[in-house]
Amino acid sequence: MKIILASQSPRRRELLTQMGIRDFQIITPDIDERMDRALPPDKLVETISAEKAGAVATQTGPEALVIAADTVVALEGAVLGKPRDETEAAEMLSALSGRHHQVYTGFTVIRGSRRVTRSACTEVVFRPLTPEEIADYVKTGEPMDKAGAYGIQGVGSLLIEGIRGDYFNVMGLPVCELGRALSEFGVDCLARCAGK
Prior knowledge:
Oligomer: single chain
Distance between the termini: 15 Å
Number of strands: 7
């Protein structure tokens, strides 16, 4: 079965490989990802992931299995996407400092006429940050291409006191939920990891 990842994210590529899916192709979806902030965060990421998957599925034919995802950070219901510049990154990090927030990832799997769209939510707790710590983190460049202006898998791990939920969801792909969804399409990730 031909498997397509509709994402340029190196983190999603890494996680898909970790799930035992090593023989996949990458096709970047060409869609407008501007957010409708009126939607609740879970519906927003589900909608965008479905649009991404649908755009790529029209290019691949009905036999290909397409996987797409979208991630946002939500603080008290307000959606934080990727920062436009260093100033906005610092503002986001200041807002998250010492507080709980949620990370939502929506994913869609399409093959032929069959489509599954779901989302997962992980609660993240930031420790209190000083303005100097925020400035230093922004200088690393890591916040600039990430929702909420941080990456849990990198230097941003120094900012996080704890999480409740799927760690990998915060990286951009809810591995457990996606594995369950893929099994509905006949893709057994554990068997693949075992070399079957």
